[in-house]
Amino acid sequence: MSSIEALLSRVSVPRVLEPGVTSVELDLLLRAGLRACDHGRLKPYRFILLEGKARERLGEAMSDYLHGDLVDVSEDAIEATKNKALRAPTLLSVIFCPQDHDKIPEPEQLVTAGCAAQLIVTAAHMLGIGAIWRTGNAIYSGEVSRMLELDENEQVVAMIYLGRPAGHLPSPPEVDPEAFLQRL
């Protein structure tokens, strides 16, 4: 498969299984993320790897947010939220770390962090690793920020779930690029 074929066939893989990524695969994924478009070469992001018990701690933080945010949340919903972090053997969080710079505004830096996440997901596909970028309100919560030990100015951009695909990959939907293009 050529690089362009791999890029055009990438799909999110919502169900993944053990094993997680190897140290060699993790190195390649991180190297791919570090190739993100980056005006000024600021690298306004970093990565946090969550495996094993760290996923359980993330699930606890996510359920703490849910329990604290919603008065009438059921125990089933809390338990389901705890288990969300266990859906993949490896989680890789992309953290936005804005840098002070006169010419490169924070919104542009945030996009750079998002590009790093996209390159990781794309590289995972090219390596045959199942990947999906998941977030949601709990991931952006103070509870999760504290669990991840983020600095006050940092925020989660992506929580990438990684593992071996649990079945055949779906074909990407056919989309007409012209429907998204305006010509001036």
Structural write-up:
The protein is an alpha+beta fold. It has six helices and five strands. Strands 1, 2, 3, 4 and 5 form a five-stranded antiparallel sheet that branches. The longest helix has 21 residues. It is globular, with a radius of gyration of 18 Å. The chain starts with a helix and ends in a 19-residue tail after the last strand.
Write the layout of secondary structure elements.
Layout: H1 3-9, E1 16-17, H2 23-33, E2 45-51, H3 53-69, H4 75-84, E3 90-96, H5 106-126, E4 130-134, H6 142-147, E5 155-165
Antiparallel strand pairs: 1-5, 2-3, 3-5, 4-5
Helix pairs in contact: 2-5, 3-4
Provide a brief overview of the structure:
It is built from 6 helices and 5 strands; from the N terminus they run αβαβααβαβαβ. It is of the alpha+beta class.
Estimate percent helicity: 25-40%
Structural class: alpha+beta
- State the major sheet: 5 strands, antiparallel
Strand content: 15-25%
* Number of beta-strand segments: 5
The average pLDDT score comes to: 94
Low-confidence runs: none
So what's the overall shape?
Answer: globular
Q: Order of helices and strands, N to C?
A: HEHEHHEHEHE
Rg, Å, rounded: 18 Å
Treating each run of at least 4 consecutive H or I residues as one helix, how many helices? Answer: 6
Distance between the termini: 35 Å
Pick out its properties.
39% helix; alpha+beta; 5-stranded antiparallel beta sheet
